[in-house]
Design a protein that fits this description.
The structure holds two protein chains of two kinds. Chain A is an all-alpha fold. Helices cover 76% and strands 0% of the residues of chain A. Chain A is built from twelve helices and no strands. In chain A, helix 2 runs antiparallel to helix 3, helix 9 packs antiparallel against helix 10 and helix 10 crosses helix 11. Chain A is globular. In chain A, 40% of the residues are buried. By secondary structure, chain B is of the alpha/beta class. Chain B has nine helices and seven strands, in the order αββααβααβαβαβαβα. The radius of gyration of chain B is 16 Å and the shape is globular. Classes of the chains: A mainly alpha, B alpha/beta. At the A-B interface, helix 4 and helix 5 of A face loops of B.
Chain lengths: 322, 205
Amino acid sequence: MGSLRSLSVTQQVGLLFVTLFGVLALVTLVAFSGSLRESDATEQALVDRFRRDLRAVWAGALLFWIAWASGAFVSTLVFGVLSFLALREFVTLTHTRRGDHRSLLLAFFIVLPAQYVLVATRLFNAFTVFIPVYVFLAIPVISAFGNDPKRFLERTAKIQWGIMVCVYGMSHAPALLLLDLPAYAGHGAFLVLYLVMVVAAAQIAQEVASRKLRRRPVARAISRSFSWRAWSAGLLAAALVGALLYWTTPFKPWAALAMGFVAGGAGTLGEFVMEALKRDAGVRSWSGRPSVTGAVGLLDRAAPLCFAAPVFFHSVRWYFGV
Amino acid sequence: MKAPEVAGLLLAFVARLITGAQGHWYGCPPKAEQRIYFANHQSHFDWVLLWAALPRDLRGATRPIAARDYWTSSPLKHWITREIFNAVYVSRQRSDDEDPLEPLMEALRHGDSLVIFPEGTRGHAADPAAFKSGLYALAQAFPDVQLIPAWIDNVQRVMPKGEVVPVPILCTITFGAPVALRPNEERRAFLDRARAAVMALRAIH
């Protein structure tokens, strides 16, 4: 570890990406050689799903690298575009009415760019309150001008919630990249990687545990696989991975454990909530395949991160008192 | 690349950015055959969406129908419809000596594909209105041209009547299996069958 710490920041980050892409390339190679064998239908379905997920991980890693390599402006732009696509998918799935048109325009063309401008300029205090305070009051006002009282609260809540998840939540990822912590300047990429690894560990562990344990689901109507036992397994895995990765973060080991716990919990609960949304919208399967609306499942993949990022970001700021 | 081509690519990009403009080909593959696409009509965007959903090399040979009096009234409108879309102009005023379908027949004889909205006007009900007879006449005159039904979904949410700026919402265009005119088929029966073929695509996802 000592030799790692003596490297410059750029070298450390470079090493991080070399390792990341190396591991990915290895996994892809193994997956590809495995796919040459004959296999039955259920196995094939699993392999297909794994390959879809692997492709998503590749896309995510490349995006992460581009975001890092090209500096603050491009990284916020990349996440801004992702936010736009996720919000587009979200609005497609919820049933908005004609009177919502102006509010939606506000959300897409004013709130979204403004939030990312606040990130890029590192105005973190304004960035934190802009949406929960100002936008949340502005949206119902604009909607009321739409002159349509039917299901007013419901429609407003949907737009607000979409902005909260797709814009506010997502914008915390570039905020992590740009956050300057004492004695940790320029290491933002490690924080994002830590967050992604922890959330991924929680999701994978939860998935495996729910297959093996076959516990009674907490809310059968929403998810057949979500049980407290499986969720706890996910939390444990997240905390463990978080603690193992403590040396990449500015935290002490116990704090890294706690952060992993918090971020992993928020991420898997985010996934659960998206499941509920999916059911409500009548979408049967989401990831990878075009669904009712032609949505390709970006929201599905981004949601755990959108839930975990703000919680993690504010825990970090609170921890360091910045 | 020339200006219309660049403008066309830009327009298709914007259409895709805002609506996704995803084409789902269920009943037929996207092929460079001579075709008449017929779809439900709910918004001014319908044509641009369908056009953007086509593969790029099919866009050039697939032409919309445009009302001559409106789309030639200003130089910009004329340029857009003539240079980017290569539209077939029809006049809305009926004169006795001229068949209103003649420009369409001319384009089909020339080997081009067409996109038509057989309802004649934009509808606001959930179901498309009854089809006008033009489709029947074209099917009779050109039995070798494939008639492809298409359902355009969600577009009415993108830009409600009276609004100017579109909201980004995903739209899909579902293309179905070709509908052919049966021997001795009545006009009304054929038009109803074509309309049912368009509506049946609504359920496929």
